[in-house]
Amino acid sequence: MDKDLFIEHIQRYGVLSQKEIALFRSYFIPKVIPKHEFLLTQGSLFDYEGFVVNGCFRTYLNDAKGNENTLYFATNDWWLMDIDSFMNAVPSQLNIQALEDSCILIISKSDKLRLYQTIPASEKLFRLMFQKAIVAWQRRLIRNHCLTAKERYKDFIETYPNIASKVTDRQIASYLGITHEFLCKIKKQLLFEKMEQC
Asked: In this predicted model, what pLDDT tens digit does every residue of 8-51 receive, in sequence order?
């Protein structure tokens, strides 16, 4: 499995030396997840983190009515985890499903703790990556509260065109917090607006 993407990802933060990066990488184990298979199901413990080398995943939960609520998608160069289950050893409320044949690199909680001892700077690296993830979550919350559904859809397809091309309209609607029918109306409106501009 090609790990160059993983190395490039780590190098961006400028925290580890080349020697440390090689050692850091050795703590991660490759895992292949076939299309439609689950990396995590609700009720299971999630005691590792995963870096997507290639493929696409959807993280979602089922509410009391059985509706699927998509929290996020993850494709190449993204991290996958359930921070609550990982940190607190509690059953996950989430499902993580591969939307296509995918490969990830995983590290267990126990190996991550050993990694902190072996390479102290790795703790800073994970902190920086976690902060970046928190910024992304905050920006999404702001968009959800400040933008219309139409604006959120346009933002999604412009910001993540590679993800938009891999997922279904129902999954996008679930991510945006709207019904599939409402998304269809939005797409028709955008198509009509585009035709008027021509």
From this structure: 999 999 999 999 999 999 999 999 999 999 999 999 999 999 99
Summarised one tens digit per residue, pLDDT across range 142-191 is 998 999 999 999 999 999 999 999 999 999 999 999 999 999 999 999 88
Whether residue 143 contacts residue 152, with contact meaning beta carbons closer than 8 Å, is answered with yes
Cβ(165)–Cβ(76) under 8 Å?
no
The full set of domains in the chain, from first to last, is: 4-114 (2.60.120.10)
CA dist., res. 44 & res. 41, Å (int): 6
Q: What is the value of pTM for the model shown?
A: 0.89
Going by C-alpha positions, the residue among 140, 115, 141, 137 that lies closest to residue 126 is 115
Kindly report, residue by residue over 39-97, the tens digit of the pLDDT.
999 999 999 999 999 999 999 999 888 889 999 999 999 999 999 999 999 999 999 99
